[in-house]
Amino acid sequence: xxxxxxxxxxxxxxxxxxxxxxxxxxxxxxxxxxxxxxxxxxxxxxxxxxxxxxxxxxxxxxxxxxxxxxxxxxxxxxxxxxx
Length: 83
Hints:
By secondary structure, the chain is α+β, with helices and mostly antiparallel strands. The chain is about 40% helix and about 15% strand.
């Protein structure tokens, strides 16, 4: 089975059934915000791996993606997982 970080999908804008982060402008505050959002995302999808290496990897992926947000992409990000 793939790791959660390998099943994670990210897209700018709203996607039905996804966890939506409506303003990623504050992501520049650091990884703390990514860990907070990821905890909420894992809760929505009944996942739990906090403290694992994969959890940290998923947080880094989320953080890096959100850092690319700008006026063209918008500041809304949807996150969901493949089965």
